[in-house]
């Protein structure tokens, strides 16, 4: 033991001269080198740090105590009392050396090549320069102490904040531990309660689905039952502390199963109703398509009818023009015939005058002969009467007529018109009936006392009556042609009936349906009163008695209309469909 302590003391006296050995391997055999083991030993011995310092370029180094003992004699007393490390820091920082020229370690200071010699030269310079160095050191000391005082204050503040933080963290830790214990005890119940509350969204969804159903009374009652059951389950879980996790989970699972079952049932009902609504919608779509199809067909039919009406109107206009042309030709022929008849009449009148003169001459001769015979008491034979040429040329007009209806009563004519199936007799009765109506209306107009001009008894527009007055002169041939016309024709012209000549601006329409040559239906539409509908066989005394040829309606442009137009207005004001007398008798 004594020899060992002696060796140690010798080593201490000799300084730091020692050899650091590196063990190449743990097995202690030669020619084996473990790189990681050697690197660890170098790190632990500080060789890595020394090599790094050498690499950075700080070969010169010395301890703080050596540097303090070396230069303390050059400085004043207040600087000699400084700590060696503080003394070294103050000198090196105050001598305006660059930071990269030296580095401070834990116990030593390191210099770049040549910088220690420069430092030594500055410290051993003249006293004047040394005074400036001492002033710089004092300035740095004051600055560093002020910075350290600030750092201490900041450190104290940070310490206070850290203490407060730790206190707060301690409270949080206590709260967290208590919460953990509570959650550990009540966590399953809280989770189940939270899950049960989440079932409210499912119940709301059930209510939304139920609101879409048509029959939702029973479904709403079931949903209300689920709500009450959920409330009772939650209350039981809250109040019963002895309930374990499995019991709570079983109650929640039962609620979830009921909610899912109710959801599936409602969705099934909703799907069924949607299917029914879809079927109903498809049915309505089919009906709408059929309706649209019918509307389209109706529009096409209307277009066809309009086209047919247009063609019929064109035909009516062409027929009117043809009739007008024929009428003009007939009027020209009538004028020629009238001139010829006038010439024949003049010739007949001349022959009559000659015949009368001859008769007068014969009468005078006969009287002379009789007077002479009386004077001579002789006898004279009467000469046979001469045959008059005019009597030979005249023929009985009634011989042409097949029926003599001049002595028939009105009731007989009316009944024959309504019941006869003989077309010729029917036309003859109608002709005789309208002839009598003309005579009656002419007599009535002639014997009526008029104080002011009035038109309240008009049975046709004035234009029609004036046209009839202008065309009163017709030949017998024209009359026969008129009786042969049995077509159905319809006309419309303006009609104004002024009772007291006050409302002269109001004008209505006069409609007439001609069955052959005579009016079968008549209609008056006025803006200030109701429609007047007249039918032949019932309202004959108020209807127009003129024939179609006498009215001159066929010669008025735009007066003739289609049957559909007349029937539309007729049925609009409550008129019944028309049946011809011949068709009525057949039925």
From TrEMBL:
An MF annotation (GO) of this entry: ATP binding
Gene3D superfamilies: 3.30.70.1590, 6.10.220.10, Kinesin motor domain
Keyword Transport tagged: no
Coiled-coil residues: 196-223
UniProt keyword list: Actin-binding, ATP-binding, Coiled coil, Motor protein, Myosin, Nucleotide-binding
Annotated region (Disordered), positions in chain: 374-394
Domain of life where this protein originates: Eukaryota
Transmembrane segments: none
A GO CC term attached to the entry: myosin complex
Actin-binding: region residues: 4-26
SUPFAM superfamilies, per the entry: P-loop containing nucleoside triphosphate hydrolases
PROSITE patterns (alphabetical): IQ, MYOSIN_MOTOR
Family matches, as InterPro entries: IQ_motif_EF-hand-BS, Kinesin_motor_dom_sf, MYO6_lever, Myosin-VI_CBD, Myosin_head_motor_dom-like, P-loop_NTPase
BP terms from Gene Ontology: actin filament organization; actin filament-based movement
CDD domains, alphabetized: CBD_MYO6-like (cd21759), MyUb_Myo6 (cd21958)
Domain Myosin motor positions: 1-124
Family as reported in the entry's similarity comment: Belongs to the TRAFAC class myosin-kinesin ATPase superfamily. Myosin family.
The protein's name: Myosin motor domain-containing protein
Organism field: Acanthoscelides obtectus
């Amino acid at each position: 033991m004594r020899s060992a302590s002696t060796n140690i003391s010798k080593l201490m006296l000799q300084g730091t001269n020692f050899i650091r050995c590196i063990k190449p391997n743990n097995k202690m055999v030669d020619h084996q080198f473990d790189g990681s083991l050697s690197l660890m030993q170098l790190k632990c011995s500080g060789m890595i740090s020394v090599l790094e310092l050498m690499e950075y370029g700080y070969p010169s180094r010395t301890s703080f105590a050596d540097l303090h003992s070396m230069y303390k004699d050059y400085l004043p007393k207040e600087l000699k009392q400084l700590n060696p490390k503080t003394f070294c820091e103050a000198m090196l920082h105050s001598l305006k050396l660059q930071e990269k020229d030296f580095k401070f370690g834990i116990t030593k200071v390191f210099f770049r090549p040549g910088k220690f010699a420069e430092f030594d030269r500055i410290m051993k310079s003249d006293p004047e320069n040394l005074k400036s160095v001492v002033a710089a050191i004092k300035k740095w000391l004051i600055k560093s102490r002020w910075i350290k005082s600030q750092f201490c204050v900041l450190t104290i503040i940070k310490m206070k904040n850290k203490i407060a933080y730790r206190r707060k963290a301690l409270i949080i830790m206590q709260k967290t531990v208590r919460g953990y214990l509570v959650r550990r005890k009540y966590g399953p119940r809280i989770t189940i309660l939270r899950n049960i509350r989440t079932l409210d969204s499912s119940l709301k969804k059930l209510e939304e689905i139920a609101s879409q159903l048509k029959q939702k009374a029973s479904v709403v009652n079931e949903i209300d039952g689920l709500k009450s059951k959920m409330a009772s389950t939650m209350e039981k879980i809250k109040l019963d502390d002895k309930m374990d996790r499995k019991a709570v989970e079983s109650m929640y699972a039962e609620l979830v199963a009921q909610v899912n079952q109710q959801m599936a049932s409602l969705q099934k009902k909703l799907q069924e109703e949607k299917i029914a609504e879809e079927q109903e919608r498809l049915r309505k779509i089919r009906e709408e398509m059929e309706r649209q199809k019918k509307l389209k067909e109706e529009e096409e039919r209307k277009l066809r009818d309009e086209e047919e009406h247009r063609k019929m109107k064109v035909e009516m206009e062409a027929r009117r023009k043809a009739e007008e042309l024929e009428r003009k030709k007939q009027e020209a022929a009538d004028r020629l015939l009238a001139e010829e008849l006038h010439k024949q009449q003049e010739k007949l009148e001349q022959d009559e005058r000659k015949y009368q003169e001859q008769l007068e001459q014969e009468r005078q001769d006969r009287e002379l002969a009789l007077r002479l015979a009386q004077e001579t008491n002789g006898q004279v034979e009467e000469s046979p009467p001469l045959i008059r040429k005019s009597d030979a040329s005249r023929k009985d007009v009634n011989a042409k007529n097949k029926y003599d209806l001049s002595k028939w009563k009105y009731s007989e004519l009316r009944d024959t018109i309504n019941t006869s199936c003989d077309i010729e007799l029917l036309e003859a009765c109608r002709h005789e009936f309208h002839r009598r109506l003309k005579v009656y209306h002419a007599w009535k107009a002639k014997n009526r006392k008029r104080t002011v001009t009035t038109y309240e008894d008009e049975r046709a527009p004035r234009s029609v009556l004036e046209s009839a007055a202008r065309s009163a002169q017709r030949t017998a041939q024209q009359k026969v042609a008129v009786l042969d016309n049995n077509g159905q024709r319809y006309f419309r012209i303006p009609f104004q009936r002024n009772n007291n000549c006050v409302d002269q601006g109001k004008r209505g329409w006069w409609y007439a349906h001609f069955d052959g040559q005579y009016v079968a239906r008549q209609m008056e539409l006025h803006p200030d009163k109701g429609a007047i509908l007249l039918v032949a066989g019932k309202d004959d005394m108020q209807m127009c008695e003129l024939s179609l040829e006498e009215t001159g309606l066929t010669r008025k442009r735009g007066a003739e209309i289609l049957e559909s137009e007349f029937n539309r207005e007729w049925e609009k004001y409550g008129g019944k469909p028309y049946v011809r007398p011949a068709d009525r008798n057949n039925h």
